[in-house]
Every structure is written in structure tokens, then in C-alpha cells.
Amino acid sequence: MHRVSIDQAKSTLPDLIEAAVGGDDVLIAKDDKHIVRLVPVSGTKPVPQFGSAKGLIIMAEDFDAPIKDFDEYAE
Question: Based on the structure, what is the number of domains in the chain?
Fold first, then answer.
């Protein structure tokens, strides 16, 4: 974990960015209070491919048939 002051961060920002991208926690402090945490931006969200599960999901023939055990609830 890297803990640096704002002044130190100004002079070592490229190194701090590399550390954050590498998975380290980077905290920047002002007046001995942590005010900023550097974290890497995650990659872009994948775009869904519609129809990619075609043929993988099968609906039972009796999917919408009444269930005998729940007859009393259907009244």
C-alpha cells in the first residue's frame, strides 16, 4: 500500500498510477487525512451478443401446465 502526501503525489504521479494499475492501493493524503484513493478503471463492459444462447435453453413441453400440488392455491 502506498500512502503519500499531495506534494509527493505531484512528483511521483506516473509511478503511483503504475502501482494502482498493478493492483496496489494508493492513498493520497492532505493534512494527514486520506482524501483520495487511486484505482484502475476497469475495462469496458462486454456488449451482449443476442442469440448467443440459442439452442442451449430448452423449454419443457408441459411448462405452463397446471401443477397438481398447487390446486388449492389456484382457487
Answer: 1
